[in-house]
Design a protein that fits this description.
Number of strands: 20
CATH architecture of the domain at 6-176 and 412-497: 3-Layer(bba) Sandwich
Shape: globular
Strand content: 15-25%
Bound molecules: ligand NA7
Oligomer: single chain
Largest sheet: 8 strands, mixed
Distance between the termini: 14 Å
Helix content: 25-40%
Number of helices: 17
CATH class of the domain at 6-176 and 412-497: Alpha Beta
Radius of gyration: 24 Å
CATH superfamily of the domain at 6-176 and 412-497: FAD/NAD(P)-binding domain
Amino acid sequence: MTHIDCRQLRPDPKDGRISAAPKSDRDPADAADAADTLDAVVVGAGLSGLYQLHRLRQLGLAAVILEAGADLGGTWYWNRYPGARCDIESLSYSYSFSPELDQEWEWSERYASQPEILRYIHHVADRFDLRRDIVLRTRVTRAAYDEDRHLWQLYTDTGRAVTTRFLILATGCMSTPQAPRIPGAGSFAGAIHHTARWPREEVSFTGKRIAVIGTGSSGVQVIPAIAQEAAALTVLQRTPAYVLPAHNRPLHPAELSEFKVTYPEFRQAQRRSRGGTVFEPPTRSALEADELERTAAYEAAWDTGFLNGMLRTYTDILTDEKANETAAEFVRSKIRSIVADPVTAELLCPRFPFATKRPCLGTDYYATYNLPHVSLVDLRTTPIERITPRGIRTSDREHELDMIVLATGFDALTGSQLAIDIVGKGGATLQKRWADGPRNYLGLVSADFPNLFTILGPLSPSVLTNIAVALEQQIDWITDCIAHLRHNGLTEIDATAQAEAHWVASTAELAGRTLYPSVDSWYTGANIPGKPHTFLAYTGGLDRYRKECDAAARDGYTGFTLSAAH
Ligand code: NA7
């Protein structure tokens, strides 16, 4: 393999883009022939991409990250809306691979804000000297596999082609924003911002009439922040969320120093855990407890400020409808106790099983609806008809607005991979192969798409875990796998069709044991028109998943075929 100087791939300092002939002037085949050849290309410079680059470097590989954004950070680069914050504790939601990093980095709050996480990511990039191999403003548009040479040919929106042996998609599980197609959007006189494409320059709400569409995690965070400044805030709600209080607070230096002493054991415990967070698992059914006991348990969970605090009370909240309803009703009682207007309170009460859509962590979310300039519109009874030059017309009236904020979510888990035109063996396209839902083995490799690994993708634990822990597990596995191939003079790894079929069936079977698939959500693809309805994540837990991945590797990569180019 030719090793190239990665500086050749760097953006032109004048405009930040890689210089190349315009796309229309180029024959892709010519471009590929003339392309630079790398050992590995990682797509995406978020938390996953950065750690993957670090690990590939440790193997001595020529590797680069291609990143569509103008800067690194991934999710934390794009989602810079006011109030954006992680819903996993900062001491947990951070890399574990470097004990030195753990010791030197100081988190300021229990739940880190977007700017602080972005600072952390930049610190990591500097500390491990990663920037020199990151190419920004470069979106991978197409990837085609060369079966003879066991190489991927990549095409980008800058016109530059790159050839690589290994292609690793670190494109994020929530990175393709979903914006509803509302008639008349182009006619609106004010600004429309999606939370996941928030402008880098400050957006002022002062004196303005704002509407927010969407009440998932992003809406729940941005709504109280906008309410603090805006003259009027109208929340357009289709489905209410279960919002638990974050009880966010500053972390005190003494507390941090104490935590740092136990960091090594804590990191070990995270790795062994079911979801990447450390807690004592419940032992009893919610239905074994009487109401008094249950309420006390739920109160205690509510007070902890953990996203999954309620799920940790009893064993069957996510598997038994009756057990689930006890938790759901507890949250509804909290909503009724906080929101002063009973009609608004009822509209805010979710009716689907608790936590079957991802619950949200909020700060003053429900109390925000007690403010005189905040109003709630129920889109189930008065749907949006169109956007007008002056605002949004629902079936009963026109809401006059200066700004519309879309907090309408993402094409989760598969969106960022299917956005790339990926062509594998025998001309197979990922789009066609996944037409009825994603297919892969161990959530890592799809059959006939060799040497292509996905991090935090579909049919892996990803969004059901603390992704900081899940991503390190997958990246360590991928890195070991690449090391194994190189050590043995092999140039290709592919998943077998049988192993893939078994994985798809067993992840569906595992999901079927829970209440998750019974509810339409982005977990099931239901939020995207035309997306196949399948449960997209692995529900067996990170601990079990880790064992499955390790066993496959230990037994000589069972379920995969390994080979060498002639
Ligand atoms: P979510 O959780 O998918 O929330 C999107 C919200 O937008 C949700 O309330 C949707 O209602 C609503 N939505 C979507 N499309 C429409 C239309 N057309 N009209 C009205 N309302 C709409 O995305 P988030 O960004 O909040 O959070 C995503 C994850 O990122 C989060 O769970 C964390 O893991 C990080 P619906 O429920 O579909 O009726």
